[in-house]
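Table S2 (continued). Query chain:
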Amino acid sequence: MNDIDVKELKSASNVLRAITHPLRIQILDFISKNEPVNVSVIYKKLKLEQSVTSSHLSILRKDGFLLTARDGKKIYYSVNNERIEHVLNSIRSYLLS
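Corresponding output:
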């Protein structure tokens, strides 16, 4: 019997938590349809508080689901499709094994 790698399991849990939150799914969807887009456009169009939007963007960014580009003081976000595809493939692989 294989031992559970607690560190790896915790990391996987954090990644799944990052992308399964309903508001983060909504933010990812909005960004993917409007990229590149900055935070002010996101929170205005989605009718969110700026601080709430920034907090969710930070989580998505930390876990690699967003790419950023700076233009002066503005940061523009786009979806890291490779990262999302990697996570989806890992889930598919786990479910099919």
